[in-house]
Design goal:
Blueprint lengths: L4 H29 L10 H11 L6 E5 L6 E3 L4 E5 H5 L3 H19 L2 H29 L3 H38 L5 H41 L1
Parallel strand pairs: 1-3
Antiparallel strand pairs: 2-3
Helix pairs in contact: 1-7, 2-4, 4-6, 4-7, 5-6, 6-7
């Protein structure tokens, strides 16, 4: 397939639509389920503490962070960080997100392969993110096409990281849901909403992979067209 301005714009638009669509989907699912109260009356902190303690992870701390959807597990500090709404509220979204982040903590305890691999290559990915953009800009605007190919290679490293992230996220959601059910923190009627929320969150990572693939494809087309010129 040859590069053309029309194809270039088509890829750019597709990338924009996928990114915007995935962000809308996760925010819509989150704001929908954050309004549905949990029948058990427990908030995100309570759920996280119960899951961690029941899995021999009482040493893992739980901290509140003010960033919406900034929930994450820090394997270096052994801390589950929950956004204010998740930490304090007793809703389906809150307990689902809390359970998901605890799923990462359980992965860490079990030595889950993809989580360990992702943690190992984080420094390389951070370097690739910084240098890749610079190399691509030099390649595109200075006509140094060797730099463009270097940038493409660094983008492939980032794509590899994103691919590794997929099983990590889906597995954490699966573990989280299993904990919610086994600890009787979620009723069968609430399970579908909880699962929907977690699937929506996971699909944002799928969208990231799709947009990275499109961008790499676009850059390869540009590099080949410049070489032919």
């Amino acid at each position: 397939m040859e590069y053309s301005v029309g194809l270039d714009w088509l890829i750019i638009i597709a990338t924009f639509v996928i990114t915007l669509g995935s962000q809308f989907f996760i925010k819509h699912s989150y704001h929908k389920t954050i309004r549905i109260s949990s029948s058990k009356g427990v908030n995100g902190y309570d759920v996280a503490r119960k899951i961690l303690d029941s899995n021999g992870l009482s040493h893992v701390k739980i901290e509140e962070t003010p960033t919406e959807l900034g929930d994450h597990y820090d394997p270096r500090c052994k801390v589950v960080r929950l956004s204010t709404d998740v930490y304090r509220k007793s809703t389906i979204a809150s307990i689902s997100v809390a359970a998901h982040e605890c799923g990462h903590a359980i992965q860490d305890k079990d030595g889950y392969f993809f989580l360990r691999l992702r943690s190992m290559i984080v420094p390389v990915v951070n370097l690739a993110s910084s240098l890749g953009y610079i190399a691509i800009m030099i390649g595109l605007f200075a006509g140094a096409f060797g730099f463009l190919w270097i940038g493409i290679f660094l983008e492939v490293i980032i794509l590899f990281f994103q691919l590794i992230t997929l099983p990590v996220e889906f597995n954490a959601s699966s573990r989280g849901l299993k904990q919610l059910k086994s600890l009787n923190l979620l009723t069968s009627s609430e399970e579908s909403n909880s699962r929907g929320m977690l699937v929506a969150a996971a699909l944002t990572y799928v969208a990231s992979v799709a947009t990275s693939l499109l961008e790499i494809f676009r850059l390869i087309l540009i590099a080949n067209s410049r070489r032919d010129d």
